[in-house]
Structures are given as C-alpha cells and as structure tokens.
C-alpha cells in the first residue's frame, strides 16, 4: 500500500506539475510498516495512470503565489513541484524511458525504499555493491557483467575520491569473482604514482608487481625490477619507432633497414662483428669519404670495448680531398693502405659481452655508415634518432630485459612507474599497451574466449592532447596507438579503464569511446564542458551536482545503467586503500623531529 501525496495539475510536454499535500514535506515518513522519503529535489514519485505507475523524478519545487484563506482566517499556500518522467512500472516490472505521460488529477504516491531499489538494481540481484545512493541511502548493486564488458572512465579533481572508487571497483570484483575470472581474464594497471604495489586489489598469490626504476641499477636476479620483452618484440619496427620516437618519413624507414639487416644476417655467429669489419673497410675505402663516418666508427669501437681500435681511430683525420689519413698515409679506394695500416687492428672487433641494447646501438651506427657511403640519407636527418637511441639506453636497460623466457602471468599485473623519469613514463605505457594488445589480438579466438583489461591511473600523463613538450608528429602517433586500442579492442575482448583528474586534457576521441562513467567532483569549466558534450546518458540534474559533490561521492552513468545515479562509494580498509592519502599535517607536525643524519638543520 502506497502513501498518496498529491495529484497532477498540469502537463507541459515532459514537464509535469503536481500539487503536493502539506504533510509530504517531512524528511522521512513511515506508513504501513514501510519507510518513505518526503518530497524533495531528486526524490522519486509514482503517478498512477490506469494499471501502470509512471515514475518521475522531482526537479524543482515552489509555492503558488495564489493565497487561499481558510475558515479560521489563516492564509495557506499551495506547494507545487516540477517532475520529469523517467520510466514506468507494469506487470513485467520497471521499464526505463518515456512512453506514457500522466493526465490532470492523476494521483501521486511516494515510493518505498524497496521499490526504489528495484528501479536501479533489478537485473543484478543486489550482489555487486560498492556504495549506497547518496540521497536515499539505499545500498545498490551494480550490473558488473555489463560494466566490465566496456570501457570505463573515472574522473574527478584531486582529493575527490576517484582513486578509492577505482580501487573499490576492482577490489570487490576480485573478492567476489576471483575463482570465476582466474585463467580467463588478465588485468594490467599502469601505475604512475606507485599506489597499488602493496596489498591493494588482489591477493599476493594472484598479483605480479613490477617496480620499475630509472634511478638505480636493477638487481639482475629480481624478476620484478625489469619488464620482460621477447626478442622478436624488441626487434620490431613499431617497438623501436615507439621507444625512440622515430619520424615517419625518414627515421622509420632507416630503422626498418636496421631490422631487415638483423633478420637477414643475425642468425650467423659473430655476424655483427663481421658486419662491422666490412663497414669499417667500406668507410675507409669509399670513393668519397664522409667525415661523419669517423665519429660513427669511434662510437662502434667504444661500444665494443675495443681500446686498440679506439687508439687507431684517434690517429685518423679527414682531409678535404675526401680521404682519411692515418699517421701521414692516405687511405686510397684500392685498399692497399687499408690492408697495410688498418685491417689488422680492425679484425680484433668482437661482440662478446654485448646485450641487445648495445647491439642495437652498433647496428644503428653501422647502418648509418652504410647509408652515408651509399648516399641514401642525409646525416642531419638521422642524427637526432641516433642521439635518442644512445641517450635512452641507460634508462631502458634499467627497466626492460630482452629475453625469450616466458613472462610470469597472473590475474593482476601492476607496473609501477613512480621511480621512472619523465621520458620513460611517456614511452613505456605505450609499449606495454601495444605489448598486451598485439599478443592478445593475435591469439584470441572469435568470439573472444579471454579478456584483457588495461587500467590507466592518472591517464592524463599519456593521453593528453595538450602537451607542448613534444612534437606534433609524436603526439599524433602516441594518441593514435591508444585510440586504436580503445576503438578496436572491444571486438577482441580488450577493455580500458582510465582515471584522470583532468578529463579535458585527454583526447576527445578517447573520452567519446568510453561507455560507463564514475564522475567525482569537477570544477573546471573545460572539464564540465567536455562532460556535457560527451556523455549522452547524463541528465541536467545530475550534471548540476558535479561541482559540489563531496569526497567519495560520484555520479554513475553510462550504457550499463538505465538511469544516472549519485553514489557515495564506501571507503576501503586502510590496508586496501591506494597509497594516495593526503598528508596529515596535524599528526606530522606534532611528532618529534628525527635525530641524527635525518634531522633538519
């Protein structure tokens, strides 16, 4: 039995005006053993029309200016509310959407908590719970099957609670569905701030954490200190172009020649040393010697740790007649002087103790020597790539290991980039995303029998369209890689979750491909404009709440939800919370200062 509170007095399109009884202004009412919320903004009312109940949401209220005097002489005012239909109940249950409209004098009733709950979680048996509805304080289950089968966006300013929401979503998923998804799905977190390396999200037995660092040399016996890449994946044009930001028209074709040479001759023992020796001879005995090849040869000798060749090259000079001179002797194209003075020392070159990174530097330098001698390239076009390769190696060697040993596969993989420099933070996430995308796409069945879920926290670090610190060509390439994954990944069973405090900085193409949203407090006009123009399922009432949401509160909307909801997300236990808590200055400053070397002067 429902509690009547008023009746319809006007219908203007989809805007309904109701006259509300006086007693309905109470915050909470009890009737026939049921608990009801009084009539206020964002509350739900049921308007009876025949055998159907039309469900409306209250959007505004006001007092009618017409004053009615009662018999005792006291004036009364008519309370009116504006409401908008959101769906209806019939014999089959609740159906979202405007199909029926009420008529004047149709009665309006309050909805009990149980009936409100049936509107939002009727399809999920109330099982996947991360919080409760803010106003109604009703615990709501989310449709997890449709939610995790989509791309998800979690947005909110710093301190709004978005990290807790991200962690809560996946903590509840792993707590409830671990046995169902183990072996069928993989989850990868790109963790820029090192927030998920502890006990968060999943049990340690199902979790692999890579603590990458460019600040210190890694422990070679620690498999978690470097991310493993297969040889075939490292010696790949896309990978090398990504790692070293190669330009499309000149540097990518050059890298392709390097890889083709590696594939053609790489299987022959000591082929790289033999290749180096032949290129040294070619450079010394060219018809017109290029001065840049002398510096390239010195780099090769240094990388091969051959002091004898370095000493020899120290005595070589280039003359304007297009010849190299060694201790007063010009090296002629016929090769006689080369054999007499140079060849014996050059033959000591070998590749012992060189890893794949050193071999890459050697091949790049040797290929450039060959191309310069053949007149294929101009040195100034390839030199920037050469410098990027050499300068990046120290950092890449600390965070990557090139090996064909199989990667440790667990349900959850956390890749922490907290201790990495900005260059690595910009490049590696793209590499990891392509790594998982390409492997999954090439091995998954049709329809997909396995899924991969990539979670990018602080996504504006790599998906920003506003960066001014990089070339336009590299920015386009960077965004195109993730746009391909987010546009094409769903058909292969690959899904992306992105969390960011500045959604307006993220590529609009990427945001437009997201299906479901958890929107915490946002106050910047550009962020709110993007939300307004991107999310079609967000109503004006919910949108107006976003700038004033409290910590942990978010608007939930998207294809998995029939109606937008405002949810207060439950706070995780302290040991499960991401390491993103604000510093407690009261506690910090009240503690005694440390003694010894750690003390402040």
From TrEMBL:
Annotated region described as Disordered, given as residue ranges: 576-601
Name of the featured protein: ATP-binding protein
GO molecular function: ATP binding
PANTHER family referenced in this protein's UniProt entry, alphabetically: HELICASE MJ1565-RELATED
The keyword Nucleotide-binding is assigned to this record: yes
Keyword Chaperone: no
Residue ranges constituting the Helicase HerA central domain according to the UniProt record: 128-326
Organism: Pseudomonas rustica
Keywords in alphabetical order: ATP-binding, Nucleotide-binding
